[in-house]
Design a protein that fits this description.
Elements (H helix, E strand, L loop, with lengths): L3 E7 L6 H14 L7 E7 L6 H7 L3 E4 L5 H11 L4 E4 L4 E2 L4 H9 L4 E5 L2 E3 L4 H17 L6 E4 H6 L11 H14 L4 E4 L5 E3 L2 H6 L3 H16 L1 H13 L14 H4 L12
Parallel strand pairs: 1-2, 1-4, 2-3, 6-9, 7-10
Antiparallel strand pairs: 4-8, 5-10, 6-8
Helix pairs in contact: 9-10
């Protein structure tokens, strides 16, 4: 059995997945426990492009997850994992070459229940820099973080995994549940030093570098307060409807129209 299982949720990610897998190969080769101590699982979340075949060709284990939810994809990968430690990373990211060593160092004391490597964007601009400041403030206030998130498989089972009915911030709720579990045992959240991941700016490429402040936050907060169905449609548009056309890694909808068309989208079961 491998020590670490890296789970990659993926929906129509043929554009970004090769870059991530290349970085994973580099990190596996640098892993002091040996490359074979890491298994790579791609949780294919009903993709319509070549995500699954590409992953198989690169030697990944592929599990099909039909429920279109990021939380469900992460859980689907975790359920078939055989490693003692589970690690999760988004498909449009790249991991640091020392990632797996950093995970081992962080968990070695036994005092850490869950950790993350932190993350940075692959480019910067004034709008993205301000967004990063907002995100870092949120992480500091909540004691959370992003990047490669990792925990022991037994603890993932103990909290029931990710909440699959949550369509957004499911990762924050997962980390919070693990932190709550850890407090009962004198454990805490920790950042893995020296292994920061890189994530893409595709949302900014699609919607503009200032979209968080000009569109998402004002519209999202207003709908959350006064129009819950409208907020649910906004969530679907922003997190789930941006890669319906496979092949390019770009939005099938022009950047100015993607979020604005949220009102035209319907949530399944609504």
């Amino acid at each position: 059995m491998p020590r670490i299982s890296l789970v990659i949720p993926a929906f129509n990610e043929e554009h970004y997945l090769p870059r991530l897998l290349q970085s994973v190969d580099s990190a596996r080769q640098r892993y002091q426990a040996g490359a074979n101590e890491v298994e790579v699982i791609v949780a294919d979340n009903a993709s319509t492009d070549s995500t699954a075949s590409l992953a198989r060709a690169r030697g990944c284990r592929v599990v099909e997850v039909e429920k279109r939810a990021i939380a469900a994809a992460r859980n689907g990968g975790a359920r078939v994992a055989t490693g003692q430690v589970l690690a999760f990373i988004d498909a449009d990211s790249e991991i640091h070459p020392d990632t797996f060593n950093a995970i081992d160092r962080t968990l070695a004391s036994g005092r850490v229940v869950v950790g993350a490597t932190t993350v940075r964007y692959n480019r910067l601009s004034p709008g993205i820099a301000l967004t990063t400041i907002v995100a870092l403030t949120f992480f500091r206030l909540t004691g959370l973080d992003a990047g490669v998130v990792f925990c022991r498989r037994s603890d993932w089972q103990a909290v029931g995994g990710y909440e699959e009915d949550r369509r957004w911030l499911e990762d924050a709720w997962f980390l919070t549940a693990l932190k709550r579990l850890g407090r009962t045992r004198g454990q805490h959240f920790a950042r893995a030093r020296g292994a920061r991941a890189i994530t893409s700016t595709r949302k900014y490429d699609q919607l503009g570098d200032w979209h968080l402040f000009t569109h998402l936050l004002p519209r999202g907060l207003a709908r959350l307060a006064f129009d819950r169905p409208g907020f649910a449609r906004l969530v679907e548009s922003y997190w789930y409807e941006d890669r319906l056309n496979p092949g390019s890694g770009r939005s099938p909808v022009p950047r100015r129209n993607l979020e604005l068309q949220a009102t035209d989208l319907k949530v399944k079961g609504e």
